[in-house]
Write a sequence for this structure.
């Protein structure tokens, strides 16, 4: 029973994970599991401790809100950046030409090099076949 730790220390009370420590009244009580946050008539949020003695519910709520808000903002910015980047790569018909970035230019150069090598190989094969045809008189 958590009530046996009333008027003792927070550390003693919170050794049992089902207990809630109220610092203002120095009471140890069962955590109200049916509610996420302890009701104000039971203990104020700034005085309520659960799990560890150095974090109160008020600070925990504020910290979680800040972290959650920051993550949502970062997610939104990333989504916007990705969408804008995709839109800028697509060329709208009749719209202005989009300046290619370095990756696009590098890819285009590589494609051109491969195309040139392929044409050279085709020309070599054609000349070999022509030589063979001339040698055997099938031309």
């Amino acid at each position: 029973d958590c009530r046996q730790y009333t008027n003792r220390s927070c550390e003693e009370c919170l050794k049992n994970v089902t207990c809630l420590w109220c610092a203002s009244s120095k009471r140890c009580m069962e955590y109200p599991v049916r509610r996420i946050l302890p009701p104000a008539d039971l203990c104020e949020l700034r005085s309520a401790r659960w799990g560890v003695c150095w974090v109160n519910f008020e600070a925990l709520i504020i910290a979680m809100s800040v972290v959650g808000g920051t993550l949502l903002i970062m997610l939104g910015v990333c989504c916007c950046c990705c969408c804008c980047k995709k839109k800028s790569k697509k060329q709208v018909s009749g719209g202005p030409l989009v300046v290619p970035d370095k990756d696009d230019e590098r890819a285009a150069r590589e494609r051109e090099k491969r195309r040139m090598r392929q044409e050279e190989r085709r020309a070599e094969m054609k000349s070999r076949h022509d030589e063979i045809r001339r040698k055997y008189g099938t031309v």
User: Anything to note?
Assistant: Residues 22 and 83 are 49 Å apart (CA to CA). Residues 56-92 form one domain. The two ends are 105 Å apart (CA to CA).
